[in-house]
Design brief:
With 234 residues, the chain is an alpha/beta fold. The protein has a single domain, classed as Spore Coat Polysaccharide Biosynthesis Protein SpsA, Chain A. The chain contains eight helices and twelve strands. The strands form two sheets. Strands 1, 2, 3, 4, 5, 6, 7, 9, 11 and 12 form a ten-stranded mixed sheet that branches. Helix 1 packs parallel to helix 2. The protein is globular.
């Protein structure tokens, strides 16, 4: 299976290397896995440090580093890696957008891919996300509205009393569709990019995944939360 992972780094070289280390076990079990770390002009030697780790740990067969000359933001930086993957002569069937401050649990990538293969209408899937202390975080969300954002800021519970769904409900035990998943780990089918385009670079940081999942949903794709695949988000 042709599968690409894009990791956007900004001054977190140690975490990015640790993230790559967590991917290594799955790299041996997934054919044609390619990981690119895009360094968003960290200016602190991050690109060189990560490239050295890739070489020294023997990851060069599946991982590489691309150094940017300017910080173009989260969405645009990820798009650099996504474009690189999609322009390949043998483009990947799936692209995983992954934060550098994550640890991928053993087997998580395989579980996400297997879910995609068994659910052809799934355009985007996200795993369960755990905090560093092991607490399960909400990673399957509903679209925010002016009311929910005002309510969240005021902490008055108005949305709940008015029968509106919370933006971030408690984590569920079973896989289910949702309106958007966390961009810290988001697996996307190639056809979604081909149909709706890449991340909106008008978002320098935050809300880009909300927008992207919303556009995918409006184009007929399902967004799924898959809790039997897990990552830790540091």
């Amino acid at each position: 299976m042709n599968f690409a992972v894009v990791i956007l780094n900004f001054r977190t070289a140690g975490l990015a290397v640790n993230c790559l280390r967590s991917i290594e076990p799955d790299a041996a079990n997934i054919s044609d896995l390619r990981v690119v770390v895009v360094d968003n002009a960290s200016g602190d030697g991050s690109a060189q440090s990560i490239a050295s780790a890739v070489r020294d740990y023997g990851w060069s067969s599946w991982a590489s580093v691309m150094a940017m000359d300017r910080n173009c933001g989260y969405a645009a930086g990820n798009n650099v890696g996504i474009r690189l993957a999609l322009r390949d002569a043998n483009p990947p069937e799936f692209v995983l957008v992954l934060n550098p401050d994550t640890v991928v649990h053993s087997g998580a990538l395989g579980r996400l891919l297997a879910f995609m293969e068994s659910h052809p209408a799934a355009g985007i899937v996200g795993p369960a996300i755990m905090a560093a202390d092991g607490e399960l975080q909400c990673s399957a969300h509903n679209r925010p509205t002016p009311l929910t954002e005002l309510d969240a800021a005021a902490k008055m519970g108005l949305a709940r009393r008015l029968g509106r769904r919370p933006v971030s409900p408690p984590p569920a035990e079973d896989a289910h569709t949702c309106q958007w998943v966390s961009g810290s780990c988001m697996l996307v089918r190639r056809q979604v990019f081909e149909q709706i385009g890449l991340l909106d670079e008008g978002y320098f940081l935050y809300f880009d995944e909300t927008d992207f999942c919303t556009r995918a949903g409006r184009s007929g794709w399902n967004v799924w939360y898959v809790p039997h695949a897990r990552i830790t988000h540091l």
